[in-house]
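User: I'm writing a tutorial on reading structure tokens. Could you give me a worked example: one chain, its sequence, then its tokens, then a sentence or two explaining what the tokens reveal?
Assistant: Sure. Here is the example chain.
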Amino acid sequence: MADKTIHVLLVDDHQVVRRGLRTFLEVQDDIEVVGEAADGAEGVARAEELKPDVVLMDVKMPGMDGIDALRKMRELANPAKVLIVTSFTEQRTVVPALRAGASGYVYKDVDPEALAGAIRSVHAGHVLLQPEVAGALLSQDEQSSGTGRGTNLTEREREVLGLIADGRSNREIARALVLSEKTVKTHVSNILMKLDLADRTQAALWAVRHGLTD
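And here are its predicted structure tokens:
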């Protein structure tokens, strides 16, 4: 059904890469590529124009890179989920990208089916956080990580936060805690307000840093 389709914007400075991604993604029944961009600035403009659900964003591009483009999108309050595309040798870029508001990342050599799964996952509200990145987050910026603010959370909010960090969507959290989705959304809003965080991705990172995950 049309309302179930995930609209994706491809942002990569290599035309061959964009063509390959488009060719694969367009055979997915639930994914539609609605546009392409060759650099970060164009990606921001196209995201504002096309209002995609998910942006597949390369990191290293001429002019405005992927992380700066992501920051600009967040300044514009663009609601699109951003999935960063990086190489194993560019792992140092992943943490800044997540801090800037990315919902996760995939490596450039990702299996096509895994890529489609990652797009569906972030669209559903999950956070793609690999163990090695969690480790990096634990070792960086502990002083500014919000230590102490979590004492304002209720027990239920801590439960919700832990499930966010586990990659659960609001619907899955509602089922797990036997709550309505509306109630879960209220808890999420309260968590973000109390911890002074911008979105659920930052909330997941906060939870990892403070040991609220298994």
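What the tokens reveal: The longest strand covers residues 31-37. The beta strands are 6-11, 31-37, 54-58, 81-86, 104-107.
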